[in-house]
Design a protein that fits this description.
Helix Hairpins; 6 helices; 0% strand; globular
Length: 120
């Protein structure tokens, strides 16, 4: 069953059905979903909180499983919010990448990690 998802539209449709079967739509306002997304993102951060940079790049199997579960929760809430607000996530991401390419031209920012308005 987990292998039959191939794109965001399929995930969105599965989530719609899952939520409808449980009569949870009433609880899935953009406000509530964004709060839930924030909580899940914080749970992901907590996994890495006290690790060194090196430790964070090489996770043991138990920690990796926790990361995968939190990433899945984040994706689920993100797709639900987008669905409720009729946002095409792939189009939005594409527009954001184009915007970031203008803000952060590679030849100007390569190897640096500053905000776009901090470059001379």
């Amino acid at each position: 069953m987990a292998d039959d998802l191939h794109d965001l539209a399929q995930l969105r449709d599965r989530l719609r059905a899952f939520v409808a079967e449980r009569d949870w739509e009433q609880f899935h306002s953009p406000k509530n979903l964004s709060m839930a997304l924030s909580v899940e993102a914080a749970e992901l951060v907590e996994i890495f909180q006290w690790l060194t940079e090196a430790e964070s790049a090489v996770l043991d199997s138990a920690r990796r499983a926790r990361v995968e579960a939190e990433l899945a929760d984040i994706l689920v809430y993100l797709v639900r919010i987008a669905d409720r607000l009729d946002v095409d996530l792939l189009q939005a991401a594409s527009r954001k990448l184009e915007e970031n390419a203008r803000k952060y031209p590679a030849e100007r920012v390569r190897g640096q990690a500053r905000k776009y308005d901090e470059y001379d």
